[in-house]
Specification:
six-stranded antiparallel sheet, 29% strand, alpha+beta, 284 residues, Aminotrans_IV_CS, D-amino Acid Aminotransferase, Chain A, domain 1, Probable branched-chain-amino-acid aminotransferase, 7 helices, nine-stranded mixed sheet, 15 strands, D-amino Acid Aminotransferase, Chain A, domain 2, binds N-(5'-phosphopyridoxyl)-D-alanine, Class-IV_PLP-Dep_Aminotrnsfr, single chain
């Protein structure tokens, strides 16, 4: 049985408890992070910790513990659960208080929960060998997608729509332009140029995105941060997504139209390779 972490305690998963009055449960008043683990070590922990701090501060929430303690908890869970390859999920909520739309007083202790998910072979090449097919759907989420909140109902509905259509994921579209995937950032490649939406409140500032764009620039690849349409994506040479759980994943079909020759492209393959190479070297 898994050992999970709740508010200072390591417990078997069936003994860990959060209040029914928790604001994460009642109001989705909480934020989260997902950090991948390869070879028992954390990928880009510092980036995830920094984004967590930003999400908390944007919502006026207290950090439950400092970054060093957070790292210790991540490592302890990896060790206790014997995780080689997998994910660590972390969630912070504004804590438990009688139901009221107004925030509880600032003394209310936040809730901190972490658990692991084992994913043997998470970075194995065969996971990216086929690539994903995606459908497009309207983006019906709230306006502050740069804050990593636990309001994941619409992304979850998007995944269900993709599944119903026989696809792997959905790209969300707003005002004619692609924002991002249900739980990943979206890219196209035209010639030698990588195109991905600029940062703003409309998308999550992916930790994998930041690393991949930095590595692409270091490898002298051209990067354009701007919006693009589904039509432009369908006419692109390649497409791919990035996230902590999928790294760099080729996209081979959008709304039934094959991208390029309909197989994973060389730029996505190269980026996946250099990203994973650096991620493993810098893992903590
Ligand atoms: N999702 N965009 C959205 C909407 C996301 O939910 C995520 C991450 C990303 C990619 O961010 P990063 O590279 O920092 O993982 C982009 C995580 C993996 C999840 O919800 O499981």
């Amino acid at each position: 049985m898994r050992t999970v972490y709740v508010n200072g305690e390591y417990l078997p998963e069936d003994q860990a408890k959060v209040s029914v009055f928790d604001r994460g449960f009642l109001f989705a008043d909480g934020v989260y992070e997902v950090t991948s683990v390869l070879g028992g070590k954390l990928i880009d922990f510092a980036g995830h910790a920094a984004r967590l701090a930003r999400s908390l501060s944007e919502l006026g929430m207290k950090a439950p513990v400092d970054t060093d303690t957070l790292l210790e908890i991540h490592r302890e869970l990896i060790a206790r659960n014997g995780i080689e390859d997998g994910l660590v999920y972390l969630q912070v909520t504004r804590g438990a208080a009688d139901r009221d739309f107004l925030y509880p007083d600032a003394e209310t202790p936040p809730t901190l929960v972490l658990f692991t998910q084992a994913k043997p072979g998470l970075a194995e090449p065969d996971r990216a060998a086929k690539g994903w097919s995606v459908i497009s759907i309207p983006d019906r989420r709230w306006g502050r997608r740069d804050i990593k909140t636990v309001q994941l109902l619409y992304p979850s509905m998007g995944k269900m729509m993709a599944k119903a259509a026989g696809a792997d994921d959905a790209w969300m579209v707003e005002d004619g332009a692609v924002t991002e995937g249900t739980s990943n950032n979206a890219y196209i490649v035209k010639g030698d140029t990588i195109i991905t939406r600029h940062l703003g409140e409309e998308i999550l500032h992916g930790i994998t995105r930041a690393a991949v764009l930095r590595l692409a620039a270091e490898a002298q690849m051209k990067v354009e941060e701007r919006s693009f349409t589904i039509e432009e994506a369908q006419g692109a040479d390649e497409a791919f997504i990035t996230s902590a759980s999928s790294f760099v994943m080729p996209v081979v079909e959008i709304d039934g139209t094959p991208i390029g020759d309909g197989t994973p492209g060389p730029m996505a393959a190269r980026l996946r390779e250099i990203y994973l190479d650096e991620a493993r070297r810098k893992a903590v």
